[in-house]
Amino acid sequence: MKKIGLFVLFAALVLCQGVSAHMPGASPAPEVDLGPIVVSDNGGVPVEISVDDVGKYHGMLEGKNPDVCVCCACTYRAILSGINEIWGGDEIPERSDIGLKCGLISNGSVHAAWYVTGTGSDMDSNTRGKMELILSDGSVLTNQSPPSAIKKASKARTPDSYWFEVSRLSTGDSVMLTVSEDMFPEGFAEMRKKVKFEKTASKDEIRQFVSDYTSVRDGMLQKPDYEIFNEVEEPDESPDVLGGGIFLTLLCAFCIGLVVMRRK
Description:
There is one protein chain. The protein is α+β, with helices and mostly antiparallel strands. The protein has one domain. The protein is 46% helix and 11% strand. The chain is built from nine helices and six strands; from the N terminus they run H-E-E-H-H-E-H-E-H-E-E-H-H-H-H. The chain has helices spanning 2-16, 51-62, 70-87, 107-117, 147-154, 188-198, 203-222, 225-228, 241-263, and strands spanning 37-41, 45-49, 98-102, 130-133, 163-168, 174-178. 31% of the residues are buried.
């Protein structure tokens, strides 16, 4: 019976992988409010793109239910952070002015990037930005359409593959974002290869990988940018000593004034 159960679990993984980035057994992604990516599209019309929109697009292309996987979440966070850094909070980027170079090659990452940059084959070509997938040897994956090409490239994925360069094509301004190794449990990449490609993982190893996968995905969605990306600094939340001193001085002067007035 144990062998049958293990076979069924492996069969589920085989059927659900391939072009799919969905992880059988993983709990649903948590609901989060990351704020939308806002782009100007089709003659200046502002379009809000949420992480759920990306998950729906990914699921549609996979022929499955909406799914915000690890790579969808990570790529969305990187593009959102990069746009906020380059364009600031006041300016809305033209969709056609957004560029992305990405070392994270997977269906989830590619679909998220396609959706935001408008480079998907089913999207309006008049508003296309630019998206390049960079292989581990530094070359560009020129043919992104066959799922087999993306699957082959994703096999070599390591924590070092999680890097993104977001750019403003019209000015050349860009920001590089690399994901902290602290986001991944020890041996995560090796176990992923063992489970999804080599098919040599034990039942317990599969369960542990599903748990680790869920933890990584939830972290990509819930943790602040400075914990995810090496280049993002933690906000300075130190107390305003100068402002506090001025307030205290004024408060003391006010109290002294009250005492003097009462004595008079």
